[in-house]
Design brief:
The protein is an all-alpha fold and about 90 residues long. It has one domain (about 5-90). Helices cover about 65% and strands about 0% of the residues. The protein has five helices and no strands. Helix 1 (about 5-15) packs antiparallel against helix 2 (about 25-30).
């Protein structure tokens, strides 16, 4: 199993959002963030990441955007997760 660091997760999310990577391929890759990333984040980060991926994967069951399974909204939430993880791991200099 390959693991991904935050920059790789970002790259794959960007590819998914632009249509260059299928939902299934993105979810499969994104399920394995690097343990060194997750180990340095509070436990809730892992729970939220996997919950968002589960919901994104479930969105594939719907032909149209559903209010609770909007792929765009879920991708936005994944982007927010990455942004917050980056802030947590690399806080801005004071």
């Amino acid at each position: 199993m390959n693991t991904l660091n935050l920059s790789e997760l970002q790259s794959h999310l960007d590819a998914f959002r632009s249509g260059q990577l299928s939902l299934q391929a993105f979810v499969q890759m994104a399920r394995h963030p690097a343990s060194e990333v997750m180990d340095r984040l509070p436990p809730a980060f892992s729970e939220v990441w996997h919950n968002l991926l589960d919901r994104l994967e479930s969105s594939a069951l719907f032909a149209e955007e559903s209010c609770s399974f909007s792929q765009k909204d879920l991708a936005d939430s994944l982007q927010l997760w990455i942004d917050k993880a980056l802030q947590r791991l690399h806080p801005p200099a004071a």
